[in-house]
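Weekly puzzle thread! Below is a chain. First person to post its structure in token form gets bragging rights.
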Amino acid sequence: MLTSPKLKIERAKTHIGNVNQMISAFLIQDPFRMEWQEDAIRCQKHLIVKATQKMPYEIPLIAADTIHNLRSALDHLACCLAVQNGAAKISDVYFPIGREGEEKFKVYAKDKIKRLSESARTFIYELKPYKGGNNMLYALHNLDVIDKHQTLPTAILGGAVSQLITSYDGPISVNASPWGNLEKGVHLLTTDLATQGECHSQLSSQIAFGDVEIVKDQPIISTLNQMLNLCESIIANFESKFFG
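Winning reply:
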């Protein structure tokens, strides 16, 4: 009975597999380098790790396709519920996900699910699909809206994940949390201009969402999988309750 929502879910799974392959292919190249940046005024130099390549543009595009399919799966679910309730018109039916608290959400959602049965509407309300209720659903909706107007914000995050091993002949000041946006550069340590030596550290990196509330700096693949699992479980629960 819920064929179209499930097809959307399967399409999202395909997109996740594709974007995961692209991320792995990009990161396996180890597209980063350590470099010194000198500060002549303070007679210091800073060791920075930076990305040497731009992220492939296909990564945010396919991530956005994943998000759209998941968001659409929920709208298809709402339409299936409306048809199951005898609705002849479904063009104004949507699965509501709001920005406000519970009371404002119910006002916002009223027209979107008016063609669903009372028990189906209650089931949706119990999911708390609004900011502050179910933040992952809200993030899914928010990302889908963002993608309608701009490319999804993404970032290459990384830095040193094990203790820096150094052999310098002068004083050094090590960054205690060397992790951040590698496209901007992540500070590893600072020393005097005259200091000589070497630095070794295991570097790690990941492709994450950029400056987007709820999911900022969260790895794209694990976040998409969380959203996938959430939407899939919602569809399964509705199927069991209303189409069993």
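Puzzle host: Confirmed. Bonus trivia for everyone else. The radius of gyration is 24 Å.
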